[in-house]
Amino acid sequence: MRTVTSTPEEVTEHEHVWIPMSDGVRLAARIWRPVSSDDEPVPVILEYIPYRKRDLTALRDSMHHPYLAGHGYASVRVDLRGSGDSEGVLAGEYLERELTDGEEVLEWLAEQPWSNGRAGVMGISWGGFNALQLAARRPRGLDAIATLCSSDDRYADDVHYMGGCLLSDNLSWASTMFAYTSCPPDPEVVGPRWRDMWERRLRESGLWLEEWLTHQRRDGYWRHASVCEDYSDIECAVLAVSGWADGYSNAVFRMLANLDVPRQGLIGPWSHKYPHLGKPGPAIGFLQELVRWWDRWLKDDKDNGIMDEPMLRIFMQDSVPPSTFYTRRPGRWVGERTWPTDRFSSRSFPLARNHIRWNGDEECDETEETIESPLSLGQFAGKWCSYNAPPDLPYDQRQEDGGALVYDTPELTERCEILGAPEVGLEFSVDQPVAMVAVRLSDVAPDGRATRVSYGLLNLTHRHGHNAPAELEPGRRYHVTIPMNGVAQAFPVGHRIRLSVSTSYWPLAWPPPRPTFLTVYPGDSTLSLPTRPVDAPDEPRVSEFDEPEGTPPIATSRVKPGEQRWTVSHDLIDYESALDVVKDLGVVRFDDIDLDVTRRTVERYGWRENDFRSVYGDVQWEMGFQRGDWRVSTVTRTVLTSDSTEFHLHAQLDAYEGANRVLSRNWNVDIPRDHV
């Protein structure tokens, strides 16, 4: 990324500002704004997240908030209550108090002498959710948002559940927030009351995973703050951004299709990252795009060309060999003027035994096929949401396809490009009342290597909807439609397209209570692909992106190196298997505030042979902060197991001041399985 040392406007920074809430709690903010705003007020851009503005996001913040300020905006970074240096307690995601706080923050900002009353909200992940959710509340002066890596539907398309199946990322993410909410404020900011604030967080933040596991269907808990409940609530302009390796790309398609406001979608090859920091590459000059976006909607610069771009700009990915880590994806940028597009539609291809009837004239063998997938299928699936570190993308699918039903096209004689969500229409029967199906779409090279392109999950008890699960009748035939994640992918000549069907996908998704024997009826099953015309004369033009740039990052020092590992193991004597993930960021010193920060997490997902009762997830976190003689740390552990009727949750929290343990808590909770 190119470092920009000078911007059109000189910038002043307010390193710490208190913003008062109506209940007396104060939120901690950091503000960058043009010096000229002392005399000429400017629009405000808010990023509102729980990830500690003074340390954990300070490096990233230093690269883009001063950049936006240097282009004529007051750029504001606020810690949610109970996080960072903000007062209060953070007790869950997107709670009503959090959203009310967000509205009050915007009101406070609008009243500042350097603000002209116009505002935008931006953010990635939690910040992207907040941008959407605040937009739906229509606060005064909010004219536009930029929402990245977020979802309009908190149940159907978030880190918790997918197709009604429980994601292991639910455990991973809950464990992350368990660790983050245990962190103290900085005594340099809040003074001697830091210890009381910290103890309150430790005692009251709670175990969020218990709440998330209690709501296994799409009920009122998940409908709250899901903007898909009424898209018309949003009346401001929306820029929706994600990446193909991210977990949230589907939401971009839905928002473009359902919002009735000025809107644009952008999807690149990236994981869960800002596009100017995008990995896998190529990263783009996203901050320049943001400036164009804000200039159009907060400064009324109607001639800057941003709305002349196609409504949807996406990176069409070329074929690559399977790998858990890419530095750069080959491909090209393409666009669609509207979404849904009228330039193409999905094509449906019937299935036959072991193959896809690509041209419609292949032999049609409708013999039924059966499978009972082993628990080991899914070890090479990667994570539901890739962070591109450690290597968390799917590996060669040949090692997964041995436990699945596989359907291939013939070798392609023409290049095939797809854009959108593939779907499987599956005619089936099962031998269990509770079962799941995983479907995968792969690009198969001439040498046999298979790269996963997309996938989908469906808890078959959710066949009538996620709010009304119903058990299956063993032996009865059913038909379901299983959507896969949206994607833009090119399949070259000589390759084959493969559909794989399995009855488990562990550890990406928690397995059903018992192994499932699945019968598929190919003659009544189909694969639908949104095939996009190649080199069509009416293809919209996408302007070339600038190279990534940002303002100089703050100085940090590596005190202790980190470690990253992603290990699959099998013990062929005891039949113990596991996926072990280590993400150790070592110890980093933030030079400007003389603070050393430690972050280390170890995740283990294990099982024995094909015993569905043996699966477990075990996530441990260590967080530490040190400045001189001040040293605090927390160690958290979350363990999830299950039997055929219940989930069993055990968690531990230990907090230390120096070498002394100052608090220890334990949780043991049993939660009934609700058709999961």
From TrEMBL:
InterPro entries: AB_hydrolase_fold, CocE/Ser_esterase, Galactose-bd-like_sf, Xaa-Pro-like_dom, Xaa-Pro_dipept_C, Xaa-Pro_dipeptidyl-ppase/CocE. Residues 530-558 are annotated as: Disordered. SUPFAM superfamilies: alpha/beta-Hydrolases, Galactose-binding domain-like. Gene3D superfamilies: alpha-amino acid ester hydrolase ( Helical cap domain), alpha/beta hydrolase, Galactose-binding domain-like. Keywords: Hydrolase. GO terms for molecular function: dipeptidyl-peptidase activity. Pfam families: Peptidase_S15, PepX_C. It comes from the Bacteria. Residues 291-551 form the Xaa-Pro dipeptidyl-peptidase C-terminal domain. The keyword DNA damage does not apply. This is CocE/NonD family hydrolase.
